[in-house]
Specification:
Number of strands: 8
CATH topology of the largest domain: Rossmann fold
Strand content: 5-15%
Distance between the termini: 69 Å
CATH architecture of the largest domain: 3-Layer(aba) Sandwich
CATH superfamily of the largest domain: Alpha/Beta hydrolase fold, catalytic domain
Order of helices and strands: HHHHHHHEEEHEHEHEHHEHEH
Shape: globular
Oligomer: single chain
Helix content: 40-55%
CATH class of the largest domain: Alpha Beta
Structural class: alpha/beta
């Protein structure tokens, strides 16, 4: 009996390993299951090996290998561990991929031309966080919670501010937009590794809630995050931030909104009641975002995403409200004055296909006069960087380098923030 139980457990573990390496993006339900099963497996591969090794030792003491089902289970387990080792190897390649993408965007020499105060803050990999990813926090960072930045339909809209406990001033600012399919998510459950890393290194980070569907209809999500950005530029100096240097990031739906924020700077049509507010940003780092609601590249492998958008987010089909679907697509807003971008996507993403990111990067590189970096990560699932892992920390190191390059260029240029305020662009 114990041998058959071990065989069943081995097959179960091997199924998770197989899915982590070969995710299934076909069909909405299958893609969701593939994501749920593969996300933790691919990011915590060696942790899975460790607990499986302990379980295997227990089964061995109980005599599971005395008959052929147990012996077959052991063979399957060893092969599965090989697969997990391969998944970990792919995660370790993130550093080289990110470095290559930055060199292609800026030139190899630009990577070393950092302002001394920024270069000194870049640090090596914290292996302790790889081994023990939870809890996600830093003793050097303080968080101010639930600051009200606006009000909509009788509801307070709030944000959190992360900064170093030493309270330095004139710090560059990261504005983070959470994901969750436009219908879920919170300001305090995503991008924590990146925000704590940057705040630890002298940045001020802001993470905002916004109205969610189905109660909210696009562009209300975008209006809210722009209002939060306007609040940030107006008040962040009170928290030690530099209002003249704000960059935007976000994952999934947050990556979509972050891209729209960067490409529609100061567009009054998305700023009702605060039309004159400055909502410009110095750069954008979208993670695994959705960039074309109309899927003109044909990257989407099923209709699940379109169904969510049509029923809950847009409240209408593309042929009923084509202008709104067009304006909701970041790829439709690409223009030559777009700020620098660093687009990050995993090639194993079963929720948002990597082809969408490829088409967006191609459009940016064809039109934008600013650098466009693109890191396509082998084996990375959707939401891979929500908690610390080897891949997460390597990618976040690269993101900090990208942002430090932008900050260094800005310092060297010595711009006048008012003189460089972007001209709003309206989609027709």
């Amino acid at each position: 009996m114990i041998s058959w139980l071990f065989l069943a457990v081995s097959l179960w573990g091997a199924a998770f390993t197989w899915n982590a390496i070969f995710p299934n993006p076909r069909g909405m339900r299958r893609s969701m299951l593939s994501f749920a099963a593969g996300w933790l497996t691919s990011e915590l591969a060696l942790h899975h090996v460790a607990w499986q090794a302990i379980a295997t030792a227990v089964f061995a003491l109980l005599g599971a290998f005395d008959s052929w089902p147990g012996q077959l289970g052991l063979a399957i387990t060893l092969v599965s561990w090989g697969g997990l080792g391969f998944a970990q190897f792919r995660a370790s390649q993130a550093a080289n991929i990110v470095e290559r993408s930055l060199a292609e965007a800026f030139g190899a020499e630009s990577l070393d031309a950092l302002a001394p105060e920024l270069a000194s803050r870049l640090s090596g990999l914290e292996w302790r966080r790889v081994v023990q990813p939870f809890p996600i926090r830093s003793a050097l960072v303080e968080r101010t919670r639930d600051v009200v930045y606006g009000r909509a339909r009788g509801i307070d809209l709030t944000l959190d501010v992360y900064r170093h406990r030493d309270h330095p001033t004139g710090c560059p600012v990261l504005f983070q937009i959470h994901g969750g399919g436009w219908i879920g998510g919170r300001k305090d459950d995503q991008a924590l590794p990146l925000m704590y890393q940057l705040a630890d290194h002298g940045w001020v980070c802001v993470s905002a809630n916004y109205r969610l569907s189905p109660h909210a209809t696009f562009p209300e999500h975008l209006v809210d995050v722009k209002r939060a950005l306007a609040w940030t530029r107006e008040h962040i100096a009170d928290y030690g931030g530099d209002p003249a240097f704000v960059v935007v990031t976000g994952g999934s739906a947050g990556g979509h909104l972050a891209s729209l924020v960067a490409l529609t700077q100061n567009d009054a049509s998305f700023q009702p009641g605060f039309e004159s507010a400055d909502t410009s940003v110095r750069g954008c780092v979208p993670f695994y975002g959705v960039y074309d609601f109309l899927d003109r590249s044909g990257a989407w492998q099923h209709s699940g995403l379109r169904s969510i958008l049509e029923r809950h987010v847009m409240k209408g089909a593309p042929d009923e409200i084509p202008e709104r679907w067009e304006e909701a697509s970041p790829i439709s807003h690409v223009h030559e004055d777009a700020p620098p971008f660093f687009v990050i996507h995993g090639d194993a993403d079963s929720l948002v296909p990597v082809g969408d990111a490829r088409a967006f990067v191609k459009a940016l590189r064809e039109k934008s006069r600013e650098p466009v970096a693109y890191a396509e990560l082998p084996g990375a699932q959707h939401a891979f960087e929500i908690f610390p892992s080897l891949r997460t920390l390597r990618v976040n190191q690269g993101v900090e380098r990208f942002l430090s390059i932008l900050r260094s260029r800005w310092i060297a240029a010595g711009p006048n923030p008012e003189a460089t305020r972007p001209t709003p662009r309206v989609l027709h």
